[in-house]
C-alpha cells in the first residue's frame, strides 16, 4: 500500500510561485486583449468617421458638379440666344442670295402635343411660298449638333403638318465651327452659317446643293 508523500516547504513555495506566475500571465493576456479590443474599436470608429466624411465629401462634390452644369447650361443658352439674335436679321438676305425666295423669319417656333408638352422647337424658321428653312443656332457647332438637327428635320413635317407642302431645307448657324464640322454638315445637305467679324456668312462651297425634306 502506497502512502502519500509529504510536500516539503520548498516544494510548496515553488508551487505557489508557479501558480502566481500563471495568474500574472493570465492577467497580462487579459489586459492585452482588452487593449487590443480598445484599439480595434478605435480603428473601427475612425473608419466609420472616414466613411462619413467621404460620403459628405461626395455629396458636396455632386452638388458642385450640378451647380456647374446649371451654370454652363445657362451660359450655353445665352450664347445660343446671342447667335440666334445675330443670325435672325441676316437669314432672309443670305438665303435670297442663295436663290431661295424667302421673305419672313419666325424665331422659337414650337410644336406641342395634346397635353401641351413641347415636342419640337426650331430656333429660326424662314418661310415664304413653297420654301421653308429650319435653322438651328449654336455657340460652337459640333457633329453631334448636326446629327441632332438632321433627326429634327426628319420629324419636322409630322410636328408641323401645316408645312407639309413646303420644300424644307435645313441650316445650322454658329459663332464658330471647325472646318471638318462645316464640311460634314455640308455633306449632309445643310447650309452652314458662321459669324465673320460683325456679319454672318454662308460657308458652303460654290455649287452646293441643299437637301430637301
How are the SSEs ordered, and which strands pair?
Blueprint: H1 9-97, E1 104-112, E2 118-128, E3 131-140, H2 143-159, E4 167-176, H3 179-187, E5 191-196, E6 199-202
Parallel strand pairs: 3-4, 4-5
Antiparallel strand pairs: 1-2, 2-3, 5-6
Question: What would you say this structure looks like, in words?
Answer:
The structure is a single chain. The protein has 213 residues and is α/β, with parallel strands linked by helices. The protein has a domain at 80-202: Trna Endonuclease, Chain: A, domain 1 (3-Layer(aba) Sandwich), CATH 3.40.1350. It is built from three helices and six strands, in the order αβββαβαββ. Strands 1-2-3-4-5-6 form a six-stranded mixed beta sheet, with helices on both faces. Strand 5 and strand 6 form a beta hairpin.
Identify the notable features of this structure and list them briefly.
213 residues; alpha/beta; Trna Endonuclease, Chain: A, domain 1; 6-stranded mixed β-sheet; 3 helices
Structural class estimated from helices and strands: alpha/beta
Helix coverage percent:
40-55%
Helix count from the secondary structure assignment: 3
What amount of the residues lies in strands? 15-25%
Which series of helices and strands comes N to C?
A: HEEEHEHEE
Q: Provide the CATH architecture of one domain.
A: 3-Layer(aba) Sandwich
What is the number of E strands? 6
Whole-number average pLDDT?
82
- The end-to-end span amounts to 124 Å
Summarize the structure.
The protein is α/β, with parallel strands linked by helices.
